[in-house]
Amino acid sequence: MEKIIGSISSSIIIAFTIFIIIMNIPENNQKEIIGDINYQEIQKNFFLKEFEKNEKKIFIMGSSYTQSLNTTEINSKIQTKCIECKVYNLSIQGDSIKKRSQVINSIISAKPEIIIYGISENDFSNNKNTKFDNSNPIFPDIKNVISNKIDFTKYIKFLNIPESPKDKTWNIIRQINKNDSINQKFTPYPNTPFLKIVDASTISISKMELRSLVSNIQPSSKINEPENNENFQILKKMISEIKKNNIKIIFFLVPIHDYALSTQTNEFKKSFQLIKEELINSSKVEVNPRFLNYSNMPIWHDLVHTAVNEQSLIFSEDIADIILMELDN
Amino acid sequence: MLFTTIDFLIFFVLILALVFVIKHKKFQHVFLLIASYFFFYYTSNYLVILLIYSTLMDFFIGKQIWKTQKIIDKKILLIISLIGNLGLLGFFKYADFAILQFNYLGEQFNLANDIPFLNLALPIGISFYTFQTISYTVDIYRGKLKPSESLREFALFVAFFPQLVAGPIVRASEFLPQLREKLQKFETNQKIKQIIFQNSNLKLGITLMIIGFFKKMFFADNIAPIANEIFSNPYGLESFTIILGAIAFGLQIYGDFSGYTDIAIGAALILGFKLPINFNKPYFATSPSDFWRRWHISLSSWLRDYLYIPLGGNKKGAKFMYANLMIVMFLGGLWHGASWNFIIWGVLHGSYLAVHKILINKFPILANNLFFNTKGGKIISIFITQYFVFLAWIAFRVKDVDAMVYSFTKYIILDFEIAGTIEFILVHKLAITIMCLFIIFNFISYKKNMKETIVNLKLRYWILVLVIPISLILLFFDATPNDFIYFQF
Hints:
The complex is a heterodimer of chains A (329) and B (489).
Chain A: H1 2-23, H2 39-48, E1 56-61, H3 71-78, E2 85-89, H4 97-101, H5 104-109, E3 114-119, H6 142-149, H7 152-158, H8 165-176, H9 207-213, H10 230-244, E4 248-253, H11 258-261, H12 266-283, E5 286-288, H13 313-328
Parallel strand pairs in A: 1-2, 1-3, 3-4, 4-5
Chain B: H1 6-21, H2 26-44, H3 48-67, H4 71-108, H5 126-141, H6 151-159, H7 161-164, H8 172-187, H9 199-232, H10 239-270, H11 288-294, H12 297-308, H13 318-336, H14 340-362, H15 364-368, H16 375-397, H17 401-412, H18 419-427, H19 429-447, H20 450-455, H21 459-475
Helix pairs in contact in B: 2-6, 3-4, 3-5, 3-6, 4-5, 9-10, 9-19, 9-21, 10-16, 10-17, 12-13, 13-14, 14-16
C-alpha cells in the first residue's frame, strides 16, 4: 500500500512541477491585458503617469457593460462645452466594486473632475447559483465558515498560479500556434487603457437571436439588504473617500435588454430598488435611471452588453448628455 | 460539494486518513455515515433533513412491510412510502413547473391571477436517493429483500457520499451485503477490518478517479463551449454546424456524467465498496434498446424493474408493450428535470424503442439477417443508432422550443452548406481537437479495457501514465468549475 501511495504522490508531484513551470511561462501581451494578478499593478502605473496639464479628467468606470462607450464620440460632444475636458473609459471586463476599491487611492491620486460609474444588479448580488444553494441556511453555513478561515487564493498567488489556469494554458497554446487569430484582442477606442476586446464584441445580433438567449439566463441570485450587502458597504466607503477629495461622483444604471430584465423576480427587483434608494439617501449621490428605450434598437451584442460598434453610439451620446448636465451644474 | 473542487479533495483525503486511523471497527460505519451527512450538509444545509426524513420513513416502513402478514396492509404501507418519497420529489422538483402550466392554462381561459411560484431550492441528489429508498421498500414488499436490521447500515446505504448526489442508483441488495459480509467476518473473530485498504482496490480506485477527473475537467469542460455556442443561438446555423453541436453535446454529457460515475466508483472502491457500473461504451450501441443497456445503466434498470415490469412490460401484447415503453421513457425524461425539453427527449427515446420493436416484430428478417453480425453491418447499425441518439441530445440541450425545432429541422434536412461550418471549426480548432481526442480515447476504450491496462502496469510505468492526465487536469483547471450536468437532476 505504501508503494501505491508513494507512486501516486510521485505522479502528483511530477504533474504539479510541470504545471508550475507552464504557469510561469511569460505570455505575449500578458502585461497589456489586465487580469487578477496584474490588476493593481497595471492600474497604478496608469494613474501614476503624467496627464496633460490643465486637462480636466472625466473617468468612466464599470465592467464590460460599459465597454462600448465610445470615448471619441463622448469627447467630441462634451468638448463643445468644455474644451479642456477629456473622457477616459476605465471599464475593465469582469470588474467588481470590491476589486475597484483596491485601487481607489490611485484613482483619486489622478485627480479627476468627475467619476461616472456604471452599475447594475450584478454588482450587488450574491452571484451564486440559487437553484442549488440555499440562500437562507437555517443551520450554520459551514462552507462559508471554512472558506472564510482558509484563503486558498493566498497560496495560489504565492506560487504565481493564475486564478484560472485553463485560460493561461489556452493563451500559451495560442501563442505557440502563432497563426491562430482567434480572440486576438484590440483596444476599441482611444483613452480606454484597460480594455481589450475581441472581434466578436463588435457584432450586433438580431432580436430573434436575443430572444433565444433568454433560456440561458441563470435564475436571479439574491441581493442582500444594504446593511448586509458587502459590496454596497464597500461602495459607500469608496464614495466617501472620493467625496473627501472633492471629486464629483455620479452613477448610472447600465443598459440591460428587456428580455433579461423580464427574468428577474419581483423580490430581486425590490432588493435592487432598496439598494438604489439607500445609495441616493445615505451617500447623497445621483443615480441616473436605466435607458429603457434601447431594447428595440439593433445595438445589442447579447442581453446585457451593447455591441462595440457605430450602431450603439446612442449609449455614448446619452452618457455624454449626463456629463454635460453635470458640467452645467 | 463538487467533486472537482479542492474542498472535495481535502475532504476525501481526511476521510481516508481517519478511516485508516480509527481502530475500533464498529465506529467505521458510523464515521462514514457522519462524513456522508457532512458532505451533503456542506452545500445543502437544512435540506439534509429531507435526506434523514426519507431514510427514517423507509427504514421503519420497510420493517413494517416485512412484519405484516396481510397483503392489503403491505400494500397500504408501500403506498404510504411511495407517496412520502414521490411527494417529496414532486414538491421540490416539479411544484414550480406545475404552477407554470396552471398559470399558462389560466391565461388561456383569461384568468387574471397567476399562482405565485414557490422558488424552492432544488435539493441536490433528491432524484437519486428517493429512487434508492423506493427500490428498498418495493424489494421488501416483493419479498426479494430482508429489511436492514440496523438503521446505521440503512442510513449509510442511502447517504453514502460517493454516489449520493448523482448516482449510480444503488440497490440495497447490492450495497447492504457489503456491510454485512464484513460484519459477519468480524463476528467470527477474524482479525479483519470492516474497511480495509487493499492494494488492488487502491490502485484501481485511484486510476478510476483520475480517469473520471480527466473525462470531466479536460474533455467535457473543454468541449462544452462548442455546444454552448451553437445551441445558445442556433438560428441561421448550417446543418453541419448543428450536427457538430449535437456531437459536441453528446460527448460533453458523456464525459461529464461517466466522469462523475468513475470518480464515485473509484472513491467507493478505495473505501472498500463496490458500486455498479453506469456506462458501457454507449456510443457503440447497435440499437436503441442496446443503447439503454449501456447508458445510465442504474437508471434504465431501475425503470425496467420498478416501472416497466409492474406496468405489464411485454406480457400483455405488443400494443401494451409500445405504450409501456412510451410511458416509461416519458417519466424517465421527466425524472431528469421539470422542463418540456426533457420530456421531449424521453418521448423521443420511447418512440425509438417502440419503432425498433415494431420493426423487429414486423420484419424478423432484420433481426436474423447475418449481415448485421458482420463488422460492416455492426458499423452501419452503430451509425444509424447514434444518428438518432444525437438527434435526441438536441432536445436535452435546447430548452427553447423554437430553437429546438430549428435545430431538429437542420439536423434532419441537410442543407449541404459548409462554409459556415468550416469557419466555425477554424475558429474553435483547439476545442475541436480535444473533441477528436475524446473520440479517439473512446475508440481505444472500445477496443481495449483501458482502465485494466493502466492498473496492470508496473508501478513505475503507472506513475508516468498518470502524470499525463493529472498534468492536463491541472493545466485546464477552471477557477469557476462547471457543475456536473447530472447534479441538477
